[in-house]
């Protein structure tokens, strides 16, 4: 009864993010009530392996007592303070230091926000601010990529290169452009090698920069692996070619490590796995294992210096959130980073990631599977109607979403992306045995849908 009342209240009072609100009226909510390791339990006691770690974020699973204790300690000691106008506090200071020390390239400073979207908005504002400070007010355009995901605030949604984030929102805003997506499986031409495709992507970026006038292009944003755009790994040599173009035209690289950061790809940062040397790095999600909302923007000395000087000239760096470096969130993030070290999270990603990649690749010959990809503890299976031509199913058949619905029935939460891509991004603490259980449950779902469509 309680559960039905809650369901009714959900249907009566909520607006769900990223939800077909009409379909929700009949489908109703999956109400989670508790978590344990890599699993969550619904209000009827059914368990689900969280194959997406929530939203690619709950890296330490759903029941880490040390994070709850860190939050409680900080709540009791100093539940709130801020870092505006020369104020400070220990968790904020120590987290800045930890992140700067852990950065994949020499970084000078850290700035905190509450979400990945805000971190990317902050990066854009910093770029505009410093280019004004450096006396080049025309150098403001930002290039992101088709199928990128950088968030949903007005500026970060503009960076995002997915139609649903623009349509009827009157986005993107001016001066944000989208270059080619690096999806070799979908965008590679017949006979084109992966390396040649990567070079073509860089050539297309260069052509865009030249068409726009290099003096007007300020920065390029990239996720090391595109997440919500369909778990797209960079083709071989991609970032090498892209960074050569950026360097040639004095364009900053912003690495959006919101998904890849803190071990997801097998190294601490996706930038290390794929050879990015960012000028600005944004991170969130696994920074606190998602137990508290917190994100960060790391900047090099070259970015920090003009920002510092300009704030001196104007009288303030006029940007900051009430909850920038919230002490409870910062304390939880510090504890999260300590746990990653103590429990050798990268070691676990190596072992369980190998198992995940092996299980994913075992579907390569499946009649519905066009492409399997991934690294570390992130991966995807792309379902197609025609393996030879890569021909997709009609979107109206909703093959990917149907697999995900069946998977939920079988007890694993996954996510379907546009183009019938089923994504996997489990908590980084998952064991090889749990990977097997997750993939066994997925197999049941895939076979059920295969029987329907073949
Ligand atoms: N950047 C990337 C790569 C993401 O995957 C996300 C969220 O999924 C964001 C930014 C936006 O983060 P948030 O939802 O915390 O605003």
TrEMBL record:
Q: Which UniProt keywords apply?
A: Aminotransferase, Pyridoxal phosphate, Transferase
Q: Does the keyword Transferase apply?
A: yes
> What GO terms in the biological process aspect are recorded for it?
biotin biosynthetic process; gamma-aminobutyric acid metabolic process
Annotated InterPro entries: Aminotrans_3, Aminotrans_3_PPA_site, PyrdxlP-dep_Trfase, PyrdxlP-dep_Trfase_major, PyrdxlP-dep_Trfase_small
Q: Taxonomically, which superkingdom?
A: Bacteria
What cofactor is needed? pyridoxal 5'-phosphate
Query: Per the UniProt record, which EC number(s) apply here?
Result: 2.6.1.-
UniProt GO molecular function: adenosylmethionine-8-amino-7-oxononanoate transaminase activity; pyridoxal phosphate binding
Against Pfam families, the record matches this protein to: Aminotran_3
Q: What class of enzyme is it?
A: transferase
Family, as annotated: Belongs to the class-III pyridoxal-phosphate-dependent aminotransferase family.
Record-linked PANTHER family: ADENOSYLMETHIONINE-8-AMINO-7-OXONONANOATE AMINOTRANSFERASE (PTHR42684:SF3)
| Name of the protein this chain belongs to | Aminotransferase
Please report the organism this UniProt entry assigns to the protein: Rhodospirillum rubrum (strain ATCC 11170 / ATH 1.1.1 / DSM 467 / LMG 4362 / NCIMB 8255 / S1)
Q: What is the lineage of its organism?
A: Bacteria, Pseudomonadati, Pseudomonadota, Alphaproteobacteria, Rhodospirillales
